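Run log, item B.
One chain of 240 residues. Sequence copied directly from the ordering sheet:
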Amino acid sequence: MQLNGTYYVGSFNGDPTPSSSGEWDMADIASAVALFASWVGVFMRYGLGVEAFVFAALLALLVISGVLDRKGRAPGILSIAMAVLWIATLWFMPYGLGPSASALGAGGLVPFFASIFGVGPLPVLLDGVLGAGLMFVLCVLAVIVIGIMTGSELLKPANFLTGMALGCFFGTTGSLLLVLLTLAFLAVFYLIGRIVSSRSSDGMLAPQLYTSGFGSGRKQKIPPVGLALAAAVMVMLIFL
C-alpha cells in the first residue's frame, strides 16, 4: 500500500512495523538456543572455574537485555547488573600481566597501569573505566552518523548503559573489537531481515529496498543492537 508517496509492502493496518506482542517468535527462540550454546562453549573453554560462571551470568544478562531491547522494553537495571557484576569480579578474578592481564579480556592499558600501581585489581579497574568511556564516545558517534544518514534512532539509553558496562569488562582495546564485531552482526541481522521481509511480501524485494528510508528522514525500526552486542560478546569470550 502507499502512504504519503512511500510504499509499505505487506502492511495492511497502516503500521509498517511488526507488533511487539508478548509472544515468542523465531528470533527469541534463536536467542535462547544461542545462549545455551554459548554456555556450553564457555564451560568447555574455561572449565568449572569462577570465570566460566561469571561469563555465563554476563551472557544471560546480555541475551535477556537484547531480546527485550528488540521489543522496545529493555530495562536499564540489566545494564546496571552487568556493571555490578564487573565490580564484584575485580576482587576475586585472577589477574596477571601481558595479553592475559584479566580473565575478562581486559588487556589494553592494564600492563601500563600495572607498571605504575603494581599487579592487582586497580590497573584492571582503570582500564575498564577508560573502556566504558570509550564505548560512550563510540555510541554517541554512532547515533550522530546513523541518524544523519537514515533518520533512524539507532540506540536507546539502555544500549548506552549496556555498551558502557561491556566497556568495563573488555577494557580499551577489547571495546574497539567489540564495536567492530557488533557492527558486523548488525549488518548480518539487517540482511537476514531483508531476506525474511522479501519472502513474506510475495517476492516484492525492489520496493522494499528502494523505500528502505535511507536518506529519506523517515523513522525506521530500531535495529537489534542488544542482540548484536550479545552475539559479539559470545564470539569474544568463546573464540578469541
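Observations after the first pass:
- DSSP finds eight helices and two strands in the chain.
- Residues 1-22, 96-103, 205-219 have pLDDT under 50 and may be disordered.
Flagged for discussion on Thursday.
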